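Check the record.
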Amino acid sequence: MNREKNIDHEIQKEEQIIEASKNDLGQFEYLYNKYYESIFKYVYYRVGDENETADIVSRIFMNAMNAIHKYECRGLPFGAWLFRIASNETKKYFRGNKKNILCLEEQKLADLWTCGEVENEAYKIELIRKLIDHLSDEEITILQMKFFEDKNFKEIALLLNKKESTIKMRMYRSLNKLKDLYQEIDRRNR
């Protein structure tokens, strides 16, 4: 309950800053500082190149600043809107490519794996990357936010503008999908 009050308080604070930013873009600095790191990680995990990520993140915040006067407060964190802009900018970057890549820190990727029968770390990481290729962008986003950005279900739901139960269901379905794909690959390799 206390966490919910804190979230509500944060949203109210953001709404005040957003309204102030509509008249004075200098006020936008608070929002930039608050969300820069999480937006950067979100884009970097998809792009895999620090310089490209920095360019994309710059465009995201420029777009947000240029459109701040159109923003309507709806009781959601400002980050939900920024993540939508980030998603659109990342899709623009990959337009023409068949599939977005997901660049994950190798140690976190290895930690995600719980099956003890694969001991070769390099093979394990390569296998997980291949399995992730079978997921949709939304499935990847949910798993990334949950396991690599340590967000809880409520935060993910707020950021993606979905119900918490929907996020839980999609995450567990994604994990089951990965498990089924792994078992299929494992059967073929025997």
Q: What stands out?
A: Residues 164-188 form the longest helix (25 residues).
